[in-house]
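Hi,

I'm pasting everything inline rather than attaching a file, because the server keeps stripping attachments. The sequence lines come first, and each chain or strand is labelled.
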Amino acid sequence: MPNERFRIVGGTRLHGEVHVSGAKNSVLKLMAATLLAQGKTTITNVPDIADVGIMAELLTRLGCTVSRDADTITIDVPEIPGHRADYDLVRKMRASINVLGPLVARLGEAEIALPGGDAIGSRGLDFHFKGLESLGATAHNQHGYVIATAPNGLKGAEITLDFPSVGATENLLTAAVLAKGTTIIDNAAREPDIVDLGEFLISMGANIQGLGTPTLTIVGVPKLNPTTHRTIPDRIVTGTWAFAAAMTKGDITIHGGRASDLEVPLEKLASAGAIITSTADGIRVRMESRPQAIDIATLPYPGFPTDLQPMVISLNAIAQGNAIVTENVFEGRFMFVNELVRLGAQISVDGHHASIHGIEQLSGAPVAATDIRAGAGLVLAGLVSDGVTLVEDCFHIDRGYPQFIEQLRNLGAEVTREIGD
Ligand code: UD1
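And the predicted assembly:
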């Protein structure tokens, strides 16, 4: 497939309306969790992104029948699904690992390819494996796969995570719902995606207390039933539009965006000078002057999301003043900073701190997206650069932002997709 890129001519104030669809980081986990119940589960508000297709392919290979109609996906799970997730899919999409918990819980066995490293750091899976072992499974690596087995079923246990990992909380939650007895997960992640998954599981018949708090209590049930569920809106896409409005001195009404999932980022944007108001079905973000620099430190929810860190660095690159951005969640997440420097940004990185000296105007240049969020951060920077910015490897961005180019154009941006060299 030819490598595509975005071509951005900077300088437009974004103005108008956008619609936010379902959260990527929620829907993929909901799809994986359908494996917990035999029969047809329906998920609505499904975003039109490549990763949904990859998860659908993975579920199909496990014997499910997956059908899609507009933003609704139906997954028919057989009585005994397959138990192996192959490397070709797992390497394309890390969230494939989310089938581990449901398969071990339902079948007592799973073989999942190890995803390996990626562009935002080493991303271990030790909490997933240790937690499953506490629940009575054995897990070992063989030929690039983790082989997890629990021939006599899982048993409730007390698990304390060393860090509130989103993926580990999800895998352990989806394993514990069918375990015998009570499981307590302490230091659990509290992201809205976890709450969405928990509510989905409850609608299947699971018994879960404490969603949205650091302690989850799960009383196992013998069987879950198929359900119908609407995916929550994507808070990272919402946040990206909010930063886009602030950076371009624009005015964007974000339909479907939930301010309650973004309290810290919106407070930070307000301190940068943005005017943020609630609307009937979302939020409106306006900016009239050059943003003020904002210091942030990424943290697990409800802290500032690491997935919006590239956007905050881009904003600071053109802000009035100096800022320090501290990355506490992923070690490799400043890699894209070198790309921003190509646009003239004044940034120096020392360990997990980036110091940014805001300048009035960035200068367009070719840059490359290294992951979804870094790519979106570079697009925002391109919008406020003079001349042309080419964002290469835009397939990364397509993984997380449905209809990105179209929505940007509706807001007045001069952006096109073109074939790269
Ligand atoms: C999910 C999101 C990602 C987001 C991240 C943090 C999806 C598909 N991805 O990723 O967009 O940036 O949450 O909000 O939902 N860790 C370990 N051992 C483990 C598990 C995690 O050391 O067993 C470390 C990771 O290396 C990382 C940190 O914990 O440094 C957080 O990772 P985690 O919360 O698990 O992120 P993901 O679920 O991979």
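The chain has two domains: 2-19+232-417, 22-228.

If the labels don't parse on your end, tell me and I'll reformat.
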